[in-house]
Specification:
Blueprint lengths: L11 E3 L3 H11 L8 E12 L5 E9 L2 E8 L13 E9 L9 E14 L3 E7 L12
Antiparallel strand pairs: 1-6, 2-3, 2-5, 3-4, 5-6, 6-7
């Protein structure tokens, strides 16, 4: 009658390349929140730090377009991204005393596929987060 109980089909968007997927992510206007996974595009590889973390110049899909800054993977990451890949940046905390985008403290958590599922988000293809990292419990 009203189709209230019918399960609605989720729309899936597939993009031809990482650049067009990132352009769509920028158009969505992601809000930086703690523990959020925000799409980013890797522009340049920096180097390896003394603890084993790898640094990368990324373009993050922000609330008013893209933000460009350096980020890293964690030191015990099982893999690392390559230049041009679409990745997920996990925000750990937001520092109030620093200017934007330096106030976003986090790490590159995963590689994203060029597939966006409505209501669920981007499809994760590979995790860059070490297995011994425990997820935060928020009430």
């Amino acid at each position: 009658m009203f189709n209230w109980f019918r399960k609605k089909e989720k729309q899936t968007l597939e993009f031809p390349d990482n650049g067009s997927a990132f352009a769509h992510a920028c158009a969505c206007g992601y809000t930086p929140l703690i523990d959020a996974l925000i799409p980013a595009l890797v522009e340049e590889e920096g180097g390896i730090g003394r603890d084993g973390e790898r640094t990368f110049l990324i373009r993050l899909a922000g609330p008013h377009g893209e933000m460009r800054f350096w980020s890293c993977t964690l030191k015990e990451a099982p893999a690392h991204p390559r230049t041009g890949e679409l990745v997920g940046f996990r925000i750990v905390t937001i520092a109030d005393d620093l200017p934007e985008p330096a106030n976003l403290i986090g790490f590159i958590a995963c590689r994203l596929d060029r597939v966006f599922v409505e209501g669920k988000g981007w499809v994760v293809t590979q995790s860059y987060t070490p297995r011994n990292i425990k997820r935060a419990i928020r009430f």
